[in-house]
């Protein structure tokens, strides 16, 4: 291996989630900021968390209701 071309690997990098959880992980980055982790992810917690961006959930529910009524009319 060539010397001085590889990044420094730190085994105690601090990874911080938006929920406030802090983990120590191995990485070449000095610090990691993430939006979602295993403490707050719906798959791991079992809690449903809907992040609504510009009314997407309402728009989806409206479309779904329209298709159900259209099928019922047939």
TrEMBL record:
Domain of life: Bacteria
Residue spans crossing the bilayer: none
Any GO MF annotation of the entry: structural constituent of ribosome
Keywords of the record: Metal-binding, Ribonucleoprotein, Ribosomal protein, RNA-binding, rRNA-binding, Zinc
Binding site for Zn(2+): 17, 19, 37, 40
Pfam families, sorted: Ribosomal_L31 (PF01197)
InterPro entries for the chain: Ribosomal_bL28/bL31-like_sf, Ribosomal_bL31, Ribosomal_bL31_A, Ribosomal_bL31_sf
GO biological process terms, semicolon-separated: translation
Cofactor section: Zn(2+)
Gene Ontology cellular-component terms listed: ribonucleoprotein complex; ribosome
Cofactor mode of binding and number, as noted: Binds 1 zinc ion per subunit.
Family named by the database record: Belongs to the bacterial ribosomal protein bL31 family. Type A subfamily.
Subunit field text: Part of the 50S ribosomal subunit.
Matches recorded under HAMAP family: Ribosomal_bL31_1
Job of this protein: Binds the 23S rRNA.
Name of the featured protein: Large ribosomal subunit protein bL31
Organism whose genome encodes this protein: Candidatus Nomurabacteria bacterium GW2011_GWC2_35_8
Gene field: rpmE
